Amino acid sequence: MDKNNKTTPVNSTQVDETKGVIKALLDGRNVNHEPDRLGTLDDESRIKVLSPGMMVFKRFVRNRLAVTGFIILVFMFAFSFLGGLVMPYRQDQVFYRTEYTLKDFAGATFNKEIRTTVKDGCKFPTSAYGKMILAYNEGKREFKSNDSYYKFSVTNDDFFQITELRVLSNVTARKMLYLYNDVDGFTMSAKMKEAFETAHKAGEDSFEFEGEKYILVKEGFEVAISKEQEVAIGSSLIYDAYNAENSSIVNSYGFRLEAERAMAEDKQSFSFDGANYLLEEGENVSTIYRLDGDTKQPFVNVSKMIVNAISPDVFLPVEFKNTVLNTVLNRENKFTYVHEDGEEIEYTLNLVHETYNVKRMTETHLIDMYHMPDEKHLLGTDMNGMDVLTRLMYGGRISLLVGFVVVFITMIIGVSVGGVAGYFGGWVDTLLMRFIDLFNSIPYWPIMIITGSVMDTMEVDPYTRVFLLMAIMGVMGWTGIARVVRGQILALREQDFMVAAEASGLSVKRRIIKHLIPNVMPLLIVQGTMSLGSIILTEATLSFLGLGVKFPIASWGSIINAASQPYIVNNYWFIWMPAGFLILLTVLGFNFMGDGLRDAYDPKMKR
Amino acid sequence: MSKFVLKRIFLAILIILFGSFIVYAVIRALPTSYVETIARQRAQLPGSKSYAEWLEQLNALFRLDTDIFTGYMGWLSDAIKGNFGDSWAYNVPVTQKFKDVIWYSFALNIITFVFQTVIAIPLGITAARKQYSKTDYGITFFALLGISLPSFFLSTILKYIFCIKLGWFDLYGIVGRYHEQLDTFGKILDMTKHLILPVFVLTMLNVGGLMRFTRTNMLEVLNSDYIRTARAKGLPEKTVIHKHAFRNTLIPLVSYMSYLIPSMFSGSMITETLWQIPGIGYISFGAMTQGDIPFTMFYNVFLITLTQVSLLIADIMYAVVDPRVRVN
C-alpha cells in the first residue's frame, strides 16, 4: 500500500493528498504557462484528473480490508442466491434413510388345544367348548351347557366328534301321566308320544320313530326328548392349504370331518364334495393330495404347528411353514428360505415362552436425523432430517433479505424525517428532534423480545412473521439515520454551493434533488452498509432466542438455534458451527466494506 | 447551566412517561395466563367464589379489564407512590427481586467495563499513532471482529471448547454444584470462575466499539494544529501523546463512557440469558417472555430513567472535562 502511495502521489494518503493535488496543479499551471516550449499538451505532462466516483473507487480498492469485505459479501450473495438454485434439494425437504433391523416376521407355536370346526347352521358356543374340555378331563363323554345336552366321542386322543342333543320336548313324567312341553315350534304327534311312552315305560334311553332316533335324557321326573345332531368336530391338528383360495374348503366342516375320519381310521384316501383326496401320513406332517384325474396335487398340509405372519397381508406358503417346523424339530435357530420371487432370505428363530419368533432383516424407513457430512449431504442433516447446507443457502436469503428490507425501511423513514428537519430547520426541526428523542426512549431489545413473544402466543404464521419482524425492526431503527441525515443537511445548507444554488434561483425541488441528495448519498451508503451488519446480527440473535424467524423458514439465526441444546453442541458441530461462521463472516464483510466506503468517500473522516 | 439542566430534566420526565407507555401498550397485547392461574387456584379453595368471579375481580385488581390508557394511568399512579406490585413470574415484590438480582449484573458489567477500558484505550491510541501500519490493520481487524461477533455464537464456541471439550467451566449458572458447602472465600472464587467466560464474551463484544472510537478521536487530535506545534517545539513524543493528545481525546471518551452507564445495569441481557447468569437481564428476559407486566414495567422504566440520567451526566461531565463548554 505504501508503495502504491509513492508511485501515484495524487492518490497518496489523506494527509499527503492535498499537498499532492496542489503540487500537481502547480505543475499543470507551469506547463500551461509555457505552452510554446513543449508545443502541445501531451499525455505525459497532462494531469490526470479523476472523477469523484473514480477517486472513491480507487481509494476503496486500495483498502485491503474493504476489498476483503467485498469479496466475502460477493461470496455470501452467490452462496445464498445462486446456491439455492444449484442445490438439488429444497429447504424443507426431509431425508429418509433405510435401515435393516431384525424384525418379527412370523410366529410359530405347537398347537396344544383342541380347535373346533362347527358345522354350517349349527352353534357351538365357547362356553360349551369349555364345558367339553372339563368333561373330557373328568373322563366323561357328555355334558350340559346352556340347556343343551352334548355328547362327544374321542378317537386317538385328539379327534373329537361332538353331537348336540337338541331338546325337542321336555316331558314331566309322573306315574302314568305325561306332560309335554314342546320347544320352539316342534309339536309332537300322537304317534310319536306313543312311541316315547312305550320306550320310557320300558326304561330305555332312546326310541326310534319314523326312522329317526330320539334320545331320552332323564333327570328325576323330567325327561327331555332330544334328537342327536352333529355340531362340530374338534382336533388339535392344523390345516394349511397350499393355495390360499382353497382355505375355505379346507376350513369347512365337511372336509375336516372326512379328513379326520380318514386319519383316525388309517385310510389312504377319502372323498369330499365330489373330489377324491389322497392322504399321506408322515411322522409330523401329513399331506393331503387332491386327485385331478391321474395327477395328484398337494392340497393341504396337516401338522401340529401354527405359523402366522405378523403382518396380516402376508400369506405364508406351506413350504415356509414346513421349513419352520423342520427347523424347530431339528433344534436349529436359523434357516434360509427361497421365496417365490427367488429371493433368498435368512430367518432366525428364537423361543419366547412357547412361541418361536421368526425374525428377519427388514427394511425400515427412518427420518435421517443428524446424518454425518458425506458426499450426499456436505454438511449433514439436522434434527429434522433436512440438508444443512441447503438450509444455510435458503437461510442466507432470508437473513440478507431481512437486512436489506429493514435498511430500506429505516432509510425511507430516516431520510424523510431527517431531511425535513434539516432542510426546514426552525420549529419543524425542534419538533421532529424532540419526537426522535421520545422515540429513542423506547427500549429496543425489550420491545423486540415482547413483540416476539406476542407473535408466539398469537401463533402468527411463519411467513407473515418474517414480514412483521422486518416491519418492527425497520420502525424501531430509523432514528439513527434521521439524526445523521439531519446533521449532514444542516451542515450542507450552510455551505457556499447551497447558497449559490439558492441565489441562482433554483427551485426547491431541484436544489434538493440535484444538490443536496448527491451530497447525502455517500453518508447514506456508508450508514446503510454498516447497519446491514448489525441488523443481520439482531435478526440472528432474535432467531437464536426463538423470537425471530421460525421453523420451517430457515434463517442463519434459526438454524443456529439448535445450539441451545448442549446435546447438539456437543455431538453435531456441523449443524450449528457453519451457520455461526456465515453470520460472523457476513457481518464482518458488511463492516469491512462500510468502513472502507467511509474511508473512500471521505478521507478526512478517518477510519 | 441550571436552566439547561432543568430543561433537560423536564424533557427526561416526558421521555420516561412516553417510553413506559409504549412498553405498557405492547406488553398488554401479550396474553398472560397468570390471572387465570390464580383465579383457578382460588376458586378451588373451599367455600370460595366461582372462577368467573375471581377472574373478574383479579382482572379489575390488575387493571386488565380497562383500556390500555386507563390501565397505564393506574399503573403510573401506583408507581409514583413507589408501589410497583408483585412480579407475576417470580411471585415476589418486583423491587425485592430487582434488589436480589441487580448485583450479579452490576458485577458482571463493571468487571467487563474495566477490562474493556484497559484493553481498548491503549490499543486505540496505538492504532492511531501508527496509522496504516500492520499494527493498525491488526487492531482494526480485531475491533471489527468484536463488533461482528454474534454473542450467541461466541458463547456457544466457548462452551464447546471450555465447558464440553476441556471441562474447565460449567455450562450454565453463576454457582457450582457444591457452592453451599464452600466457605465465603470459596463462594466468591466459585462465582468468579463462573463469571470468567461471560465477562470474556462481553469484553470481546464491547471492546471493538470503544477501540474504534478512541482511534478516531485520537486521529482527529493528532492531526490538529496544537499537536503539530507541540512537535515543532521539540517536545518528546511521549509528552506529546500523553500530555497533549490523550487529554484531549478524553473529552469525547468521557461522554462515550457515560452512555455505557445504562448498560452497566442492563446491557448484557443476551449474554446473561445464554449463560443463565441470574442477573437483571436474564430475569427480565424471563419476565418479558412470560408477560409479567409489573416486572417488565419496572425494568423498562428503570432502563429509560437510567438512560436519561446518564445522558444528563454525559452533558454535565462534558462541561467538567472541557472548560470551553463551561463558558458557554
Give an overview of the whole structure:
The complex is a heterodimer of chains A (about 600) and B (about 325). Chain A contains 20 helices and 18 strands. Chain A has about 600 residues and is α+β, with helices and mostly antiparallel strands. Chain A has 3 domains: about 65-90 and about 375-605, MetI-like fold (Orthogonal Bundle); about 110-235, no CATH class; about 240-365, no CATH class. In chain A, strands 2, 3, 4, 5, 6, 7, 8 and 9 form an 8-stranded antiparallel sheet that branches. Chain A has a 5-stranded antiparallel sheet with strand order 15-1-18-17-16, with helices on one face. Chain A has a 5-stranded antiparallel sheet with strand order 10-14-13-12-11, covered by helices on one side. In chain A, a hairpin with a 2-residue loop joins strand 17 (about 345-350) and strand 18 (about 355-365). In chain A, helix 5 (about 65-85) packs across helix 11 (about 390-425), helix 11 crosses helix 15 and helix 17 runs antiparallel to helix 20. The longest helix of chain A has about 35 residues, at about 390-425. Chain A is elongated, with a radius of gyration of 50 Å. The two termini of chain A are about 15 Å apart. The model of chain A is unreliable at about 1-15 and about 30-35 (pLDDT under 50). The model of chain B has no long low-confidence stretch (mean pLDDT about 85). The relative contact order of chain B is 0.14. In chain B, helix 7 packs across helix 8 and helix 9 (about 225-230) runs antiparallel to helix 10. Chain B starts with a helix and ends with a helix. Chain B is globular and about 90 Å long. Chain B has a domain at about 105-175 and about 200-320: MetI-like fold. Chain B is mainly α and about 325 residues long. Helices cover about 80% and strands about 0% of the residues of chain B. Chains A and B meet through helix 12, helix 13, helix 17, helix 19 and helix 20 of A and helix 1, helix 6, helix 7, helix 8 and helix 11 of B.
